[in-house]
Amino acid sequence: MRFGEVAVADAEGAILAHSLRVADGVLRKGLILDNNALSQLSNAGIDRVTVARLEETDLNENDAALRIAEALQSNGLNASGGSRGRANLRATADGLVLIDADTVHRINALDEAITVSTLEPFAAIKTSQVAATVKIITFGVPAETVEECVSIASSGNAPVSLASYEALKIGFVQTLLPGHKPSLVAKASQATNDRLLPLGLKIDVERKCSHSVPEIAEELKFLAESGMDIVLVLGASAIVDRRDVVPSAVVEAGGANEHLGLPVDPGNLMLFSKIGNTRILGIPGSARSSRLHGFDWVLRRLAAGITVTPDDLTRMGVGGMLKEMPGRPVSRELEEPLDLSDKETDGPIGALLLAAGQSRRMGRDNKMLVEIDDEPMVVHAARALLESRAEPVVVVLGHQPDAVKKALSGLDVQFVTNPDYENGLSTSLKAGLEAFPENTVGAVVALGDMPRVTVSDIDALIDAFDPDGGQSICVPTFDAKRGNPVLWARRYFADIAGISGDVGARHLIGENADQVFEISRDNPGILLDLDTPQAVEAHRNGD
Q1: How many CA within 13 A on the CB side of residue 354?
Q2: Are residues 527 and 481 in contact, defined by beta-carbon separation less than 8 angstroms?
Q3: pLDDT at 543
Q4: Is 513 exposed, middle or buried (0-12, 13-18, 19+ CB in 10 A)?
């Protein structure tokens, strides 16, 4: 591929390297320059332009990305895309992402223009979500190099694959001591079912017994003989030794204890055992909380049909110190009792991007499409959300929906059209919030005219989010001033949906001051909304 600056007169058929503003609008990077485009450049007084020209032996960025993605697809992953130099691998079922890291490294080392990015090994993924993405940095790469990538991808283990969840039978045993509260027993059953549900599983048989070796052994033997694939044992007291009650019961039932302990916190006190073909997991009391737990890591792999060995367990320590949380059984710093009060259900945090407004203050231009650094400002806002941990990203369209949708083409967002956008911001909030799945526990509400909000700003809100700990509304601040976006717990969705007119949800922050948590940021972009031509011009000039 040839790349460089040439005279406009010599640029026909070349690929425009950078977007340029002309009288009729913007010529976007990646455009193949024809006579019409060249005329527009000349009329704009532009006599030289930076372009790329592919050699006959090159593949363009889109074809190259899709070719490599198709070579990577396997076992539950389908390639799609081939736009703006990017193609994705999407899951065809719920399951875990499996990565052959060495193969991915070999592909990424082949040519700096070719990049393959994946989720972490064993990451949980849902149907249609992206497991990996191929991005071509340049406008084209040698076809020979692409075929080398294809050869590497097909030479051994699949670089990226999906282990889908299997239909398993689950048994659950709770052991009881005198004075054990029935509400605690019910809560544990519900928490366990909640963990199983995303895996397509449920408790098939539940048993309760006293916390004694003979009774636990009897229940374990019964469940193993009943054909349970996995039996979960939640003891009334923690397992602290192989000779403790639950491990002793496993042995008495004719089983074997393969490993005690897990280098994941919370989750250290997990027992890994087996009776015949039935896997036995002694789970810590901390699993009563709905928060992410080491036990989840093990359960997901088993549900996906992945063989788990004691060596696999001991290798979970790297990255195994999970986030400190009020719902842990014992704080890492303080010896506090387990808080067993009702908790809000854990689940994904979505992102809502409001891009439906009429842009009255911007004049004749749709502010969402006004370019900042050669891209529409709405693209900046959307990309920051997509690169954060928020998922899914829902974009509300209204004014000029086709144009805004076109600007966001190629980005992995969901679109919702608000037919009532002319009635104000509140209608877009309602339309957007209604689009989130029922298990969404919160939503980052962002504005399409704030292009300088960063991924770090958004993830900081998600890190701080803790409805159970009194942090159900998370707000960024700069220089003691509150900005955007704001992360709202699901408990406020109904209140937000009840707002009318051209107003947002700011008043709810004042009404729920005890639930507001401010996160200080060093980015003035959380205060910067570009909704007038003057604001845009000032920003471009660095004012």
Answers
A1: 28
A2: yes
A3: 65
A4: exposed
pLDDT higher than 90, residue 540: no
- 187 with 159, same domain: the answer is no
* Residue 353, helix vs strand vs coil: strand
Report how far residue 45's alpha carbon sits from residue 43's, in angstroms, rounded to the nearest whole number: 5
Q: Which letter does DSSP use for residue 265 in this model? A: B
Helix axes 294-303, 182-196, angle to 10 degrees: 50
Three-state secondary structure along 376-396?
EHHHHHHHHHHHCCCCCEEEE
DSSP string, 174-193: EEE-TT--HHHHHHHHHHHH
Residue 266, preceding peptide bond in cis (omega within 30° of 0): yes
Domain for residue 339, yes or no? no
- Give the pLDDT band (50/70/90) at residue 503: low
Asked whether residue 512 is assigned to any structural domain, the reply reads yes
Buried b / exposed e along 92-130 (16+ C-beta atoms within 10 A): ebbbbbbbbeebbebbeebbebbbbebbeebebbeeebb
Q: Determine if residue 411 is left, alpha or beta; phi over 0 gives left, psi from -120 to 50 gives alpha, anything else beta.
A: beta
The answer to whether position 338 is within a domain reads no
- Asked if residue 171 has pLDDT above 70, the reply is yes
Written as one letter, the residue type at 48 is R
Are the CB atoms for 505 and 518 separated by under 8 Å?
no
C-beta of residue 68 within 8 angstroms of C-beta of residue 150: yes
Domain final residue, candidates 136, 164, 192 = 164
Helix (H) or strand (E) holding 371: strand 371-372
Question: How far is it, in rounded angstroms, from Cα 277 to Cα 251?
Answer: 15
Say if residue 28 is in the same domain as residue 112.
no
**CB-based contact 486:445 (threshold 8 Å):** yes
336-390 pLDDT per residue, tens: 333 333 344 467 899 999 998 877 777 778 889 988 988 999 999 999 999 999 9
* CA distances from residue 277 to 168, 254, 274, 338, 396 in whole angstroms, order as listed: 12, 12, 7, 34, 50
Opening angle at CA 21, ends 20 and 23, nearest 5: 140
Burial 368-399 (b: 16+ CB within 10 A, else e): bbbbbeebbbbbbbbbbbbebebbbbbbbbbb
Per the omega criterion (within 30 degrees of 0), is the bond before 451 cis?
no
The residues, ordered by sequence, that sit 6+ positions from 392 with a Cβ below 8 Å of its Cβ are 348, 350, 351, 413, 414, 436, 437
DSSP for 90-136, please give it: EESSSEEEEE-HHHHHHHHHH-TTEEEEEPPTT-EE-TT-EEEEEEE
- CB 74, CB 88: distance < 8 Å: no
Question: Model-level pTM?
Answer: 0.59
Tell me the residue range of the domain where 40 lies.
Answer: 2-53
What are 317's two structure tokens? 């320590």
For tokens 């729920």, name the residue: 512
